[in-house]
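Backbone-to-sequence.
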């Protein structure tokens, strides 16, 4: 499944308007945000491009949320890392989704082709790090818990390298 836009790094030096916009956003805001719409292959997802280049922190992605909420979450992450805050895999944090903690996990590189084409373009390959921001249901159920619905698990696939904290 190759859903990620811009899945090939450009070999020439001429950039198109989208690439120029991405680089301008990184220079001005510290990142560019990509939103991929839901389709027959999977749920919507959003991710940053350029956070690692601008701030030295990992890129971030979130799967399964509507675009306005996802955009807020990834921008909140960018704002916080630009202010010097750092996040750790396996830890939970407040301030991203009102009333709920979110958990950060490292995205395994085997998912980069499918989800993170723009980062592959920016970094010229897979030499970057990405956190997946994982969130519970409104009832506080995490996607790896036995009581999580199949719909919720499909809506938020876990792309991390190891089992998330709490999933052991």
């Amino acid at each position: 499944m190759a859903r990620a836009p811009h899945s090939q790094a450009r070999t020439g030096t001429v950039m198109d308007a989208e690439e120029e916009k991405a680089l301008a956003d990184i220079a001005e805001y510290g990142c560019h945000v990509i939103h991929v719409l839901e389709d027959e292959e999977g749920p919507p997802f959003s991710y940053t491009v350029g956070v690692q280049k601008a701030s030295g922190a990992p890129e971030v992605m979130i799967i399964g949320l509507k675009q306005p909420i996802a955009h807020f979450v990834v921008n909140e992450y960018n704002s916080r890392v630009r202010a010097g805050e750092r996040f750790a895999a396996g830890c939970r944090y407040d301030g991203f989704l009102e009333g709920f903690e979110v958990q950060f996990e490292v995205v395994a590189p085997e998912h980069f082709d499918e989800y993170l084409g723009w980062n592959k373009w920016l970094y010229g390959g897979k030499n970057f790090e990405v956190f997946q921001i994982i969130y519970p249901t409104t009832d506080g159920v995490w996607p790896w818990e036995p009581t999580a619905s199949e719909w919720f698990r499909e809506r938020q696939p876990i792309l991390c390298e190891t089992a998330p904290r709490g999933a052991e």
